[in-house]
Design a protein that fits this description.
The protein is 20% helix and 32% strand. It contains 7 helices and 17 strands. The longest helix has 12 residues. The protein is elongated, with a radius of gyration of 24 Å.
Length: 307
């Protein structure tokens, strides 16, 4: 993957604020409560939660950090970035305009229901609000719950509108890998269909008068008697495009019974968004992000190959 150096989030210089040196053994929260009288306990905890309290030159968010005589405590007037950590979502790039993430299978991108669910959108919204409650994120595209891989969000509405309006010009490469049932007749091909959605919320291939054009290019990477590993490049980004088209050509994505799969060898939809290349709207630089083919995909092909 081409390395794109993100804007640095740590501070090169200590920001402006208040400083004190500890004189006797203590822990951080009681020390701050004594120092910052008459501020409430809630407001002091908020300083810690926002990373505005530094111990010996580094931000600390732990209430029970032990303090020894000579330790230097600093309260910054500026909020420090809060680390993001979640087992199903990893931030791979972040700047003032965009967030690129690697989503695990099983996590919704965004919820269509009124009730708040644990989604990539919800998790990132909570994350950006830790720095400033006014911060928001904006949806650019989605991945199905069962699909893993790369997706991005905008940090402001103007960026969202610009990217959505110029999506085909800005996205220079968007590719997936999938394990499909059987072996396609051609090692590479272009699939052009017209997609519509029925009342059961299943996307299906139809005629040009009743559907929207969907174009995918696939190439065979490896196969055995049971499964094939393919890479797909999308020209269009229709809902469930890959899943519907793979069913249409008779080689559904493994683990996808809704779209015709007979097997579920990995306990998941075997579809992964592996590459996302785009022109950064603010800089014009081409950003390139890649993730490896999931180990489950490679192991399945290898395992079946050896038997």
């Amino acid at each position: 993957m081409q390395k794109n150096t993100p804007r640095q989030h740590h501070r090169k210089e200590t920001p402006k604020g208040q400083k004190r040196v500890v004189k006797e053994n203590n822990t951080l929260l009681p020390y701050l409560l004594e120092w910052l009288k008459p501020q409430s306990k809630t407001s002091v905890k908020a300083l810690l939660g926002r990373g505005q309290v530094w111990v010996n030159g580094a931000p600390s968010t732990h209430f029970n950090t032990p303090l020894n005589p000579g330790d230097e405590i600093f309260i910054s007037h500026a909020k420090a970035p809060v680390p993001f950590n979640h087992p199903q979502l990893k931030i791979v790039w972040e700047d003032d305009e965009l967030i690129v993430v690697n989503k695990k299978e099983g996590l919704l991108s965004v919820s269509d229901s009124p009730s708040q669910e644990r989604t990539a959108y919800f998790l990132l919204s909570q994350y950006v609000k830790k720095t400033d409650l006014r911060n928001k994120i904006f949806i650019l595209h989605r991945l199905d719950k069962g699909t893993s891989g790369l997706m991005m969000f905008a940090r402001n509405r103007n960026m969202q509108e610009y990217l959505r309006s110029n999506w085909h010009e800005m996205i220079t490469r968007r590719s997936y890998v999938a394990v499909i049932e059987g072996i396609p007749e051609k090692s590479e091909d272009t699939i052009v269909t017209y997609l519509a959605e029925n009342k059961q919320m299943k996307v299906y291939c139809t005629d040009p008068q009743n559907g929207k054009e969907a174009v995918s290019h696939y190439s065979l990477l490896k196969s055995n008697a049971t499964y094939s590993l393919i890479e797909l490049e999308l020209e269009t980004g229709r809902k469930n495009q890959i899943r519907a088209q793979m069913e249409y050509i008779g080689h559904p994505v493994a683990g996808d019974p809704k779209y015709g799969a007979k097997t579920d060898p990995a306990g998941r939809l075997m579809l992964h968004a592996g590459r996302l290349f785009f022109k950064h709207p603010a800089t014009g630089e081409e950003m390139r992000f890649e993730t490896p083919i999931p180990k489950q995909f490679r192991d399945l092909i290898k395992q079946k190959d050896d038997t």
